[in-house]
Amino acid sequence: MEEMMVEEKKWILKPQEEERARELAEELDSTLLVAQILLNRGIDSKEEALKFLSSDLGNLTDPYLVNDMEKAVKKIIEALKGGEKILIYGDYDVDGVTATSLLLLFLRDLGFSAYYYIPNRVKEGYGINVSSIRRFHKKGISLIITVDCGISCVKEIAVANSLGMSVVVTDHHEPPVEVPDAVALINPLLENCSFPYKALSGVGMAFYLAAGLRKGLREQGFFEDRPEPSLLDYIDLVAVGTIADIVPLTGLNRILVRAGLEQINLKPRLGIETLLTVCGVTGGQVDSTSVAYRLAPKINAAGRLSDASAGVRLLTTQSAEDAERLAGYLDVENVERQRIEERIFNEAVDQIVSGGLIEGRRSIVLFSEDWHPGVVGIVASRLMEKYYRPTVLLSMEEGVCKGSARGIPSFHLYQGLTRCQDLLIEFGGHKYAAGVKMEPGKVDLFREQFEEVVREMVPEEGFVPVMTLDAVTELFHMSMEEIEQFHALSPFGAGNPEPVILISDVEVLAPRVVGQNHLSFKVRQEGSVLGAIAFRQAHELDNLGERMDLAVVPEVQTWQGNRSVKLRVKAMRKHSGREMAADV
Question: In terms of Cα–Cα distance, which of 114, 102, 181 is closest to 148?
Answer without folding.
Answer: 102
